[in-house]
Amino acid sequence: MNEEQRKQQETSSSQEKSTKDYSQYFETTYVPPSLKQAKKRGKEDIAIHYDFEIPVNMQQIGSGKKFLIRTYGCQMNEHDSENMAGILMNMGFVSTSIAEEADVILINTCAIRENAENKVFGELGHLKALKRDNPGLILGVCGCMSQEESVVNRILEKHQQIDLIFGTHNIHRLPELLQSAIFGKEMVVEVWSKEGDIIENMPRARKGQIQGWVNIMYGCDKFCTYCIVPYTRGKERSRRPEDIIEEVRHLARNGYKEITLLGQNVNAYGKDLADVNYGLGDLMDELHKIDIPRIRFTTSHPRDFDDHLIDVLAKGGNLVEHIHLPVQSGNNEILKLMARKYTREQYVELAGKIKQAIPNASFTTDIIVGFPNETEEQFEDTMTLVREMDYDSAFTYIYSPRDGTPAAKMQDNVPMEVKKARLKRLNELVNEQSAKKNLDYQGRVVEVLVEGESKKNPDVLSGRTRTNRLVNFRAPKSAIGQIVHVRVTEAKTWSLNGEVVEMSEVNG
Ligand code: 5AD
Ligand code: SF4
């Protein structure tokens, strides 16, 4: 069976299975997902809860036990894993990085492209052996993949080693679900397709003490035709400004040096807040006043990037001059088919406005090649746009059809070899630009937030500039978590090497 036939067989059998009623197999919770339901956008208000607590009888369930969370995908997922870790620790579990030691393993999954999903299924296969050696082990699957019917059905059919599946809207239900999984005999499945309320005070075990993620909104209403996220993450829901500001203040008081504000489409922040006229620009303006060295945000949609935000970002200070502005394609027909709701010209104009207001801003982007029926000329438009924008770097992807999205229904006449060749050409251009940009840094003194030991050499420390460039240099370990000034001595394609300079030399 070739890859195409295998996929076809898999899709048709999973479609067939989705009509099956699995509920008879379940003694406990069985709430399966539905992408169709997830697509609906209701008008009902989202309530905010400040009263999350772990029931007393569940607070010791993990006593003497260990947990491990494996996280795939974006920062949103990383941050969700911090919440889950916080919940588990409040149930008495302690964290481990060794799978063989763990009593609970949660796989927090990503659905954005097929290869992300394949990695997860590979990992589930590996976990079978662990479960065989340790039948008491609880294996859970959560995150975006668990929001897809086809995935849940495939797990039910082929991965009986899994004890628990829960969705992105069910994280606060982890104590109850885990209790059912530990004490029940059947697989526990609880995936709400419709988003729930905002739960403000979930416990959180943050990964580091230097950089912190702060959610400002959940969900996405953009429905770009290729993207699964609006289905897996629900409708746009903004947190209250005062809750966000308090969280950032709290992190500042606790010595954090950098905050990244998170949302699938942060520029839509505040649009759903009925009682206030308040957007991302207003929020950034408030955060600008907080005594914390750096504030970033991700990820932006060009459509909602307004002038007020640009004016506020131009104030600089702790608002860093790095703009991640996903473009996806440089061709207007493709942008239309993607339902991005801007043209190439509008994108370039917006970027021009930002560059004018923040002349030293670095720009990065996301690009998809090989969208259904993308012609050579249309791809060339993306190449010319990349040249014109002169990006500092770009995340580039081959289009991956996602079941249930409009683009997945489009006929596609572009062979995979052509898509791969386009990606290669695009990457060569991006790398060339990135290397050239790095050369501009040579000899300059840059401000670096020291993140830790370099991955390749523990004797070397590494950190990032305000523009998010990776810098490696030698310094005492005590510099970790500090902001230092580094003179760039060597530019590589992906990183810079340098040496720490004394503060007195900085302006000299
Ligand atoms: N195929 C390929 N890339 C995708 N992205 C989102 N959906 C898909 C898809 N179906 C990319 C977009 C987005 C980034 C997070 O992932 O470029 O900005
Ligand atoms: Fe993956 Fe997107 Fe979900 Fe993040 S939001 S986990 S990138 S699918």
From TrEMBL:
In which residues is [4Fe-4S] cluster 1 bound? C74, C110, C144
Q: Where is the MTTase N-terminal domain?
A: 65-183
Q: Which positions bind [4Fe-4S] cluster 2?
A: C220, C224, C227
How and how many cofactors are bound, per the record note? Answer: Binds 2 [4Fe-4S] clusters. One cluster is coordinated with 3 cysteines and an exchangeable S-adenosyl-L-methionine.
EC no. given is 2.8.4.3
Needed cofactors, names only, are: [4Fe-4S] cluster
Give the superkingdom in one word.
Bacteria
The subcellular localization recorded is: Cytoplasm
Gene Ontology cellular component list = cytosol
Q: Which InterPro entries match?
A: Elp3/MiaA/NifB-like_rSAM, Methylthiotransferase, Methylthiotransferase_CS, Methylthiotransferase_N, Methylthiotransferase_N_sf, MiaB_methiolase, rSAM, rSAM_horseshoe
All residue ranges annotated as the Radical SAM core domain in the record: 206-436
Q: Does the keyword Iron apply?
A: yes
- Residues in TRAM domain copies: 439-502
Q: What does this protein do?
A: Catalyzes the methylthiolation of N6-(dimethylallyl)adenosine (i(6)A), leading to the formation of 2-methylthio-N6-(dimethylallyl)adenosine (ms(2)i(6)A) at position 37 in tRNAs that read codons beginning with uridine.
Write down the NCBIfam families for this protein, in alphabetical order: miaB-methiolase, MiaB/RimO family radical SAM methylthiotransferase
Q: How does it assemble?
A: Monomer.
Protein family per UniProt? Belongs to the methylthiotransferase family. MiaB subfamily.
This chain belongs to which protein, by name? tRNA-2-methylthio-N(6)-dimethylallyladenosine synthase
| Gene name of the encoded protein | miaB
